[in-house]
Description:
By secondary structure, this protein is α+β, with helices and mostly antiparallel strands. It has helices at residues 3-22, 102-111, and strands at residues 44-46, 64-65, 72-78, 84-96, 121-127, 130-137, 146-151, 156-166, 177-188. The protein is rod-shaped. The relative contact order is 0.24.
Amino acid sequence: MGQILKxxxxxxxxxxxxxxxxGAFFSDAEESGANVFAxxxxxxxxxxxxxxxxxxxxxxxxxxxSGYGDPIEIEMRNAGSLDGKAYLKFKDIVEEENGxxxxxxxxxxxxxxxxxxxxxxxxxxGYKGSVVxxxxxxxxxxxxxxxxxxxxxxxxxxxxxxxxxxKNAGNEYQSDRCYFSIEFRLEQQS
Length: 190
Ligand SMILES: [Ca+2]
Ligand SMILES: [Ca+2]
Ligand SMILES: [Ca+2]
């Protein structure tokens, strides 16, 4: 076999093997476009507001009493797309004498100065028609997370806050007042 013929055969064989390796077989492929991974949302609205919220509780002229009056109703809404759990917290309590009346001054002769009205204010909390906290002292639940319950995506729930001044509060509490903040919180369901 001549050298040229041998070379031609080798080249032909290589060409055949290459065709075998890359030659067309039946195949089929499908594609799905525009796939997406996006985070959901959790967005609490309180009376349709975002913070800083307006004042929710303004109770004036309270007197010692044995029961709660009408509640203060607050609307909590989860405007997001994820289910959540709602919490409430009373915090930043500041008590002040707000002047000392004459009967209060007289009482001080036996009680000494008394300026702790938050420990005489009773609190009841309702959420979606159920009582979640009852007869708690405002001072006693300061900075405490009150677990309200579920607030699902797009759900609106009514929160009811009741307050009254303990019937055992004597003259040493006349005119006394306290300020406090209320934190409303929504956390995602784990
Ligand atoms: Ca919000
Ligand atoms: Ca006072
Ligand atoms: Ca006082």
